C-alpha cells in the first residue's frame, strides 16, 4: 500500500522538471520531499495522483499503476494541492459535503478520521472558505482530502504560508494520521519540518540528491560547522567569501554557518582572521549539522 517510482522523467518543452526519479515509500511511512521552489515536487505529486502523465518510467500507488489504473488510484488517495484547492464561496461545511458527495460518502460515515481536525474548524462551519485564516483553510483542505478514508495521502507544501503554531499542530495531526495506517507523502520547503519525517528525499532541479532518515543524513555531514556572528553581517559575508580556509559560508538565521577546507580547523583561527579584518563583537562556536546544512553541502 505504499508508493513505488521507477525512473520517472517529465519535461515541459525545454524544462526537465523530473529526471530519472526512483524511490519507494513504505506502507504506513511518513515520507518527506524536501526541496526549494521549482525542484519538481508539484510535478511529482501530479504524476502520482494521476493528473499528469510521465514521459518515462513507471509508478504505482497503493499497488495501482498510475497510468493503467488511474481510476483506482483516484478512489484510494487523498490529495491536498499546494495552492488552495477549496471553493472560496462555499462554507466550510458545504466544502466538506461537496468532497464527501464526489466520493459517494458522507461526513458522518468517516467522521472518526477527520474528527480531531474538523472540531477545530467546526465553530466556523457556516463561514465561507475564502474568509478563513491560513491555518483554518489548511485544516479544512486536509479534512476534505481525508473524507473518503484514503490509503495514501499526498500533501504538497501544506504548511506554506501558515503560522508557526499552526505548522506545529499540523505535523502533530499528520503523526496521528500515520498511526491510523495512512501512508503519507508530504513536500515542504521548510528544512526544520524534514526532521519530523521517517525518511526524506532531498530534491533539487528535478533530481534526487539523497534519500535516508533525517538522522542518518545529518550524521553523514562530513565537516565541523561553526556558527559565526559579528557586528557587521554584510562585511562578515564578504570576508568569509574571500578567506582562504573557507569551504562554505552561508546565512543561517542570525548567524553564518562556516565550514573549512582544512582538516582539524579550529575556531581560534577563524577568530584571529576576523580580528585581523577588524570585526567587532565576534562570536564563533561549534554547532551541530542540520538538514539545511546537508542540503547546502549536497547542492554545492
Ligand atoms: N506547466 C508547466 N509548463 C512549463 N514549465 C513548468 C510547468 N509546470 C512546472 N514547470 C517547471 O518545471 C519545474 C518544476 O516545477 P514544479 O512546480 O514541479 O516544482 P516545485 O518543486 O513544486 O516548485 P513550486 O513549489 O514552485 O511549485 C520548474 O522549473 C517549473 O518552472
What does this structure look like?
- It is a single chain.
- Strand 9 (199-204) and strand 10 form a beta hairpin.
- This protein has eleven helices and 14 strands.
- A six-stranded mixed sheet has the order 6-7-8-3-9-10, sandwiched between helices.
- The mean pLDDT is 93.
- The protein has helices at residues 41-48, 70-76, 92-102, 111-118, 134-146, 164-179, 191-194, 214-219, 233-242, 267-276, 291-299, and strands spanning 3-12, 15-25, 30-34, 56-61, 64-65, 77-80, 152-156, 183-188, 199-204, 207-212, 225-229, 246-252, 255-260, 283-287.
- By secondary structure, the chain is of the alpha/beta class.
- Helix content is 34%, strand content 28%.
- The radius of gyration is 22 Å and the shape is globular.
- The chain has two domains: 3-218, Rossmann fold, CATH 3.40.50; 221-299, Alpha-Beta Plaits (2-Layer Sandwich).
- The structure holds adenosine-5'-triphosphate.
- Adenosine-5'-triphosphate (ATP) is lined by residues 12, 15, 17, 35, 37-43.
- Residues 3-230 form the ABC transporter domain.
- InterPro entries: AAA+_ATPase, ABC_transporter-like_ATP-bd, ABC_transporter-like_CS, ABC_transporter_ATP-binding, P-loop_NTPase.
Question: Any descriptors?
Answer:
single chain, alpha/beta, Rossmann fold, Alpha-Beta Plaits, 2 domains, six-stranded mixed sheet, four-stranded antiparallel sheet, binds adenosine-5'-triphosphate
Amino acid at each position: 500500500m505504499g508508493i513505488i517510482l521507477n525512473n520517472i522523467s517529465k519535461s515541459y518543452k525545454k524544462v526537465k522538471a523530473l529526471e530519472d526519479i526512483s524511490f519507494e515509500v513504505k506502507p504506513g511511512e511518513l515520507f518527506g520531499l524536501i526541496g526549494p521552489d521549482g525542484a519538481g515536487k508539484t510535478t511529482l505529486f501530479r504524476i502520482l495522483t494521476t493528473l499528469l502523465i510521465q514521459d518515462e518510467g513507471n509508478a504505482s500507488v497503493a499497488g495501482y499503476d498510475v497510468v493503467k489504473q488511474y481510476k483506482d488510484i483516484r478512489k484510494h488517495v487523498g490529495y491536498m494541492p499546494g495552492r488552495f484547492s477549496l471553493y472560496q464561496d462555499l462554507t466550510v461545511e458545504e466544502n466538506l459535503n461537496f468532497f464527501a458527495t464526489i466520493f459517494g460518502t458522507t461526513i458522518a460515515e468517516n467522521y472518526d478520521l477527520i474528527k480531531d481536525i474538523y472540531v477545530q474548524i467546526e465553530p466556523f462551519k457556516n463561514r465561507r472558505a475564502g474568509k478563513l485564516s491560513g491555518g483554518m483553510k489548511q485544516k479544512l483542505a486536509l479534512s476534505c482530502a481525508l473524507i473518503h478514508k484514503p490509503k495514501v495521502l499526498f500533501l504538497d507544501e501544506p504548511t506554506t504560508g501558515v503560522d508557526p503554531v499552526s505548522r506545529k499542530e499540523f505535523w502533530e495531526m499528520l503523526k496521528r494520521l500515520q498511526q491510523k495506517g495512512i501512508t503519507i507523502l508530504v513536500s515542504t520547503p521548510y528544512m526544520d519540518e524534514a526532521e519530523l519525517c521517517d525518511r526524506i528525499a532531498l530534491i533539487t532541479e528535478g533530481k534526487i540528491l539523497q534519500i535516508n532518515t533525517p538522522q542518518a543524513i545529518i550524521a553523514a555531514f562530513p565537516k565541523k560547522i561553526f556558527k559565526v556572528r559579528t557586528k557587521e553581517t554584510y562585511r562578515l559575508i564578504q570576508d568569509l567569501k574571500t578567506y582562504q580556509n573557507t569551504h562554505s559560508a552561508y546565512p543561517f538565521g542570525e548567524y553564518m554557518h562556516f565550514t573549512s577546507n582544512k582538516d582539524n580547523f579550529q575556531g581560534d583561527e577563524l577568530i584571529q582572521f576576523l580580528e585581523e579584518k577588524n570585526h567587532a563583537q565576534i562570536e564563533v562556536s561549534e554547532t551541530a549539522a542540520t538538514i539545511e546544512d546537508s542540503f547546502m553541502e549536497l547542492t554545492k
